[in-house]
Design a protein that fits this description.
heterodimer, A: mainly alpha, three-stranded antiparallel sheet, 15 helices, B: two-stranded antiparallel sheet
């Protein structure tokens, strides 16, 4: 299976498969064999890790950068209107950045399907945003811009705390549900002529609430967060949001990727514990990597939490042709 | 160690049961999400989404489909006439509307900024001038309370000291609208609804040879409202005419409470409809 097919399969909700014997490159086979045999290396790594981990939480460099960007973008929308500085007008569904049209891809799609007529402004806005998020890749929009993502991260912190205390337990959903929901909302827009998804889009609701003032729609966002805190970890972003799937498809072949290096990996699984979409990190499981370095799949939001969490530096954000520029 | 056949079968059963539970749980979640979204149809069917829309709005069904709910029209309006609908509008969430009694559209931008700002054409780019819009129908709802009907004048702030609504008064500032409360009147016969009508103002400017921005195209072809005598004791009533676009300024400025004129819902024809 090509890595792109695999990436799409997992984006649409298939569970990662154990690679077949023929999928491995010779270099990967050799490295897996060496890692198994080299007892002293493992002992040395273990000692090093024990020292590093002593009472230390993993760094949060990427999270801090990301939150700063996310808050800055959303704040720019707010001040553009409230202070009338007109830098970034509109909301996340559609906007103008210093006069240049931008449109959220999923909102634009809903409008195109419902209205069945496309104005040139919307084409310009859609193409601009498409190219932008193609370059940044994966679901970068989700973790770096979407205001709901930030609230969901806070809800997730609570969820994890409660789960550690055994007060609650995570109830996973079937990830294929998101693809089904995407199709349902596309068909609903096409058939009913209403942008049905916008009614409940927490991204749109939050963006408008920030810019134009709060309203009752925030109750819906609150309900989603309660589900995530008490019932199912990251339920909306992982299993439901059609916006995420749209961006995942657009960014599937982007030049920016999280890259995995097998040689330094100790298969501790710290990265999978913090990941919003752990299925994209299937290759870090012992014996699963089919090559010595591999790119993480399209469902990845480029949040960088795995990069921070990895004690051995085996994961990094990499821009094709430029190497690990994001140390 | 080799697992016994029994335990393999048992493991499979629990796995299948877990899968079934995951599936059912997902089904409930998915139905909940779709159900919540589709419930947005209820306010539409109940007619709750019928509002005075900004100039150039397409016919309601098309307008709801085309609007991307971004509020760029809200941001450019010089008198902040446009608000965005809430979740109680269902599918209409985030669509722009105008509460005319609170703040009408007085066309003080001249160039229909909201239409120009609309990225999807939900406010059709086919109209260029105020008199081409079709936002509502003005109707004289309470003729008995009209000051002019009793031959009365009006002195003071049209809507009182608390009213935040704004209008552009050309004679005060051509470019910046000011609060109505900062522009008290002293009229022998109350004709505020006619005096402040943006269509009538343009007609007057054109007939005195000074069309807005010197552009003849800005001249409305038809009159929108006029006072006509109702008796021989000096009583007058406003009469809404064919040129009315439903901007709501007459409703907003009317000094009696509740106002004499209201806006009736008008299915926006939208030139492209």
């Amino acid at each position: 299976m090509s890595s792109l097919t695999k990436s799409f399969r997992e984006l649409f909700g298939a569970e990662p498969r154990k690679p077949a014997a023929g999928d491995f490159t010779d270099a990967a086979i050799e490295m897996h064999r060496q890692q198994r045999g080299d007892k002293s290396r493992i002992a040395a790594l273990k000692a090093e890790l024990a020292e590093k981990k002593l009472g230390k939480a993993p760094p949060e460099r990427w999270r801090r950068r990301r939150w700063a960007v996310l808050i800055a973008v959303n704040l720019l929308f707010v001040v553009s209107f409230q202070l009338d500085i007109q830098m970034l007008e509109g909301a996340l569904t559609a906007s103008r950045f210093v006069g240049f049209h931008m449109a959220d891809l999923n909102s634009a799609l809903q409008v195109m399907l419902a209205f069945k007529e496309v104005l040139v402004n919307l084409v310009i806005g859609t193409v601009t945003v498409l190219v932008f998020w193609w370059v940044l890749g994966g679901r970068t929009f989700c973790s770096w811009v979407c205001p709901y993502h930030l609230l969901a991260e806070w809800a997730e912190m609570l969820h994890v705390k409660l789960a550690e205390k055994k007060l609650i337990k995570d109830h996973p959903f079937d990830r294929r549900g998101r693809t089904v929901l995407w199709v349902i909302f596309a068909v609903l827009a096409l058939v009913t002529g209403y942008t049905v998804y916008e009614t409940i889009s927490p991204t749109g609701i939050l963006s408008r609430a920030l810019i134009y003032g709060p309203g009752v729609a925030l109750a819906w966002v609150g309900a989603l967060l309660l589900v995530e805190i008490f019932y199912s970890r990251r339920a909306w972003c992982r299993y439901a949001c059609p916006i995420g799937l749209t961006y995942g498809v657009v960014g599937a072949v982007s030049p920016l990727k999280v890259t995995y290096y097998l040689d330094s990996c100790f298969h501790e699984g710290e990265c999978r514990k913090v990941c919003e979409v752990p299925h994209v990190l299937d290759m870090v499981i012992k014996g699963r990597a089919t090559d010595v370095n591999m790119n993480v799949g399209a469902d990845c939001t480029h949040c960088g939490r795995c990069v921070d969490a990895c004690p051995t530096g085996s994961l990094n954000l990499k821009f094709k042709g430029l190497g690990d520029i994001f140390q | 160690m080799v697992k016994s056949d029994q335990s393999v079968i048992k493991g499979k059963e629990t796995r299948n049961r877990r899968k079934r539970r995951d599936f059912l749980r997902t089904l409930v979640y998915g139905l909940g999400v779709v159900g919540a979204a589709v419930a947005g149809l209820i306010p539409v069917l109940k007619g709750k989404t019928r509002h005075v829309r900004p100039p150039g709005a397409l016919a309601e069904q098309q307008f709801m489909a085309a609007c991307i709910k971004c509020g760029q029209c809200v941001q450019v309006c010089p008198v902040n006439a446009i608000k965005l609908a809430e979740l109680d509008d269902g599918f209409g969430i985030g669509t722009p509307y105008i509460e005319t009694r609170r703040q009408a559209c007085d066309f003080s931008c001249d160039g229909l900024q909201c239409v120009l700002a609309c990225p999807t054409g939900a406010l059709t780019h086919d109209i260029d001038y105020p008199h081409q819009s079709e936002m509502a129908y003005a109707r004289v709802e309470r003729p008995a309370s009209c000051l002019a009907a009793a031959g009365l004048g009006f002195k003071g702030q049209a809507r009182g000291p608390e009213f935040a609504g704004r209008l552009r008064y050309d004679e005060v500032d051509r470019w910046n609208p000011i609060a109505v409360r900062d522009h008290p009147y002293d009229l022998e016969l109350c004709d505020l609804c006619v005096r402040q009508c943006p269509i009538e103002i343009r007609i007057d400017q054109c007939s005195s040879g000074k069309p807005p921005s010197g552009d003849e195209n800005q001249c409305p072809p038809l009159s929108a409202i006029a006072l006509e005598p109702v008796d021989d004791q000096g009583g007058y009533l406003p009469v809404v005419r064919e040129g009315c676009v439903g901007c709501g300024v007459c409703e907003m400025i009317c000094p009696v409470e509740p106002g004499v004129i209201v806006m009736d819902y008008r299915e926006p024809a939208g030139v492209a409809a």
